[in-house]
């Protein structure tokens, strides 16, 4: 799994295992989320084949059908449009949609089967083969191709996860009843919002916005300046900490490499600003305004300085990640397509930084207490 996400080459937030350990502080990568669904459903097919109890077999078949419907809805409404947009591979998407259609036909038939009899077993076998072949195509061709694009897999993961939950909800008896009354497909409010705000949706969504490209560009430029200010502040904060972390080698190593990332981020932002006819020097004032409150935390020379600095760095990294995420949206709305990849790189770096600090809050705190108890100077 880890090797798969490394394909993107833009620096990933953290490993899947680390994400789980830290309580999923980053949303799942959309392609990993969908691949995880594949594993679960294929596992259920194997269970169905081995299971002797008719009641259980029937229950497994129902669950497979429900899970596949939800999975296919999330792919068709959220994931595939993004694949089409980012890779331009319309054929792959059309082929996949066609395979879904065939799977749905089998699922409809299975829904009509009342018990785990021979005809159900036959249909299940057919469905398993269809799905296994389809999954292989997705995981070996479509997903790797998509991961090499500059799509934000994590933002898309949020959309996929939300749509999948809604699609499961739509299949509950209560939702089906409501649907049959109104004759319409009933969608929960969250599902509706998820689709209109599909995080990686096709650009055809932009014309419905009540904002012109020029206006969006103004917000984009302001966002660039603010992001530059925040990164500059972050650079100062990281530099100040580096000198005083002898007793925390892991933290020191990470901050040293983050300092290099900060330099690269500033260069990227300056290039983008110049492209908009703005001079990076004009950025200074905005910096003071935006980060005045957070900056004071980072320089506090307190006894528990290392802890205070960790909190400030975490806050700032999250602030920067949020700025970059919004900036990407504004950049898209302004038609600044060349800006998307550099901004995406900045976003990945800040997410990774925030995740690292968060994962290390306890180890850092424990090290601090240990040093205190040993009578050493914990902040030195
Ligand atoms: Fe899939
Ligand atoms: Fe699929």
Give the topology.
Blueprint: H1 2-6, H2 16-21, H3 30-50, H4 54-87, H5 90-112, H6 118-147, H7 153-169, H8 173-182, H9 189-196, H10 213-242, H11 249-275, H12 283-298, H13 305-333, H14 340-359, H15 361-373
Write a brief structural summary:
This protein has 380 residues and is mostly helical. The chain has helices spanning 2-6, 16-21, 30-50, 54-87, 90-112, 118-147, 153-169, 173-182, 189-196, 213-242, 249-275, 283-298, 305-333, 340-359, 361-373.
Structure commentary:
76% of the residues lie in helices and 0% in strands. The protein is built from 15 helices and no strands. It has 380 residues and is mostly helical. Helix 10 (213-242) runs antiparallel to helix 11 (249-275). Residues 1-14, 20-25 and 184-208 have low confidence and may be disordered. The structure holds fe (ii) ion (2 copies). Residues 72, 75, 96, 100, 134, 138 line the site of one fe (ii) ion.
Are any ligands bound, and if so which?
fe (ii) ion
Helix content: over 70%
Give the tally of structural domains. Answer: 2
Q: What does the overall shape look like?
A: globular
Gyration radius (Cα, Å) is 25 Å
Number of strands: 0
- Could you list the spans in which at least 5 consecutive residues all have pLDDT below 50? 1-14, 20-25, 184-208
Given the helix and strand composition, which structural class is it? Answer: mainly alpha
Major sheet attributes: none
The total count of helices amounts to: 15
Compressed to H and E, one letter per element, the order equals: HHHHHHHHHHHHHHH
- The whole-number mean of residue pLDDT values reads 80
Strand residues, percent? under 5%
Distance between the termini: 39 Å
